[in-house]
Write a structure and sequence with these properties.
Length: about 260
């Protein structure tokens, strides 16, 4: 069996990582592919995600707070480093589960995932040649020009830090109007339209700042394409699969290793 395709789902808190991981696993299963879900968030309180491998078996945020007498913020940092120490247990557990895909739900605090050296060590240990990052754009932030640019820069930072192919997903599109979705997607397709929107959004336009913003946006143009998705109506999940296949093996479909035999 080939090495599984690994997708790390990350983004700002509330972007819908857990819901999308759950929905995508369901979609893959329906399509005939097996998927292993890994929870890397020691502070997760989700009742919807049922991970196959759960870091909370080794590291729990509440336990870290109590053992080290830390507040929530300090415990998050300490827990992130403790998770890195357990990465080989996670890797061993993954080796025992044969699946086509590995879907990784990362910590809700994006700064812990994006900027801690421990996160880089975790990805290096778990990632093979068939890995990518799905960066989620929260529609609440993405529907304003400044929020869109902020998320774009954060996505670029994640790609720079981890050196993995990164695919931007606009989540929860069922909460947006069609006009809002169209406008957000237009910013991703046309850097000039985004610059114009940013300038209109500025209370006091500044020529020097506008020039700097334009250069920054122009340099990130290859990263700006967004895929609209929804974990509610499952829109965008097949295109996500297609993109993953393009990254992992040039677009060729996997042979479903756990699909029922063809009775025809």
């Amino acid at each position: 069996m080939d090495e599984p395709g690994t997708i790390y789902f990350t983004g700002t808190a509330g972007a819908g990582k857990t819901s999308l991981v759950t929905a995508f696993r369901s979609w893959l299963t329906t399509a005939g592919y097996s998927a292993t879900v890994v929870n890397l968030d020691p502070g997760s309180e989700s009742t919807t995600l049922q991970p196959d491998i759960d870091i909370r078996e080794w590291v729990r945020l509440a336990d870290v707070m109590q053992e080290y007498d830390l507040g929530p913020n300090g415990a998050q940092i300490a827990a992130a480093d403790l998770v890195a120490l357990k990465v080989f247990e996670v890797k061993q557990a993954l080796s025992e589960l044969r699946s086509d895909y590995v879907l990784v739900d990362t910590p809700g605090q994006i700064e812990l995932f994006a900027f801690r050296e421990s996160s880089k060590a975790i990805l290096e240990a778990l990632s093979g040649d068939r890995s990518l990052v799905a960066f989620l754009f929260d529609p609440t932030l993405a529907k304003s020009p400044s929020g869109f640019v902020s998320l774009l820069m954060l996505s670029a930072t994640v790609e720079f830090r981890f050196r993995l192919p990164t695919y931007n997903l606009l989540t929860k599109v069922d909460l947006l109007t069609p006009a809002q979705v169209e406008e957000i997607l237009s910013w991703g397709e046309n850097p000039g339209a985004l610059v114009d929107a940013v300038e209109r959004d500025m209370p006091t336009p500044d020529a020097q700042l506008s020039s700097g913003v334009f250069r920054a946006i122009e340099s990130m143009a290859p990263l700006m394409t967004l895929l609209p998705t929804s974990s509610q109506d499952l829109s965008g999940l097949e295109p996500l699969y297609r993109h993953a296949q393009q990254v992992f093996q040039g677009g060729e479909d996997l042979e479903p290793s756990h699909a029922p035999p063809d009775e025809g």
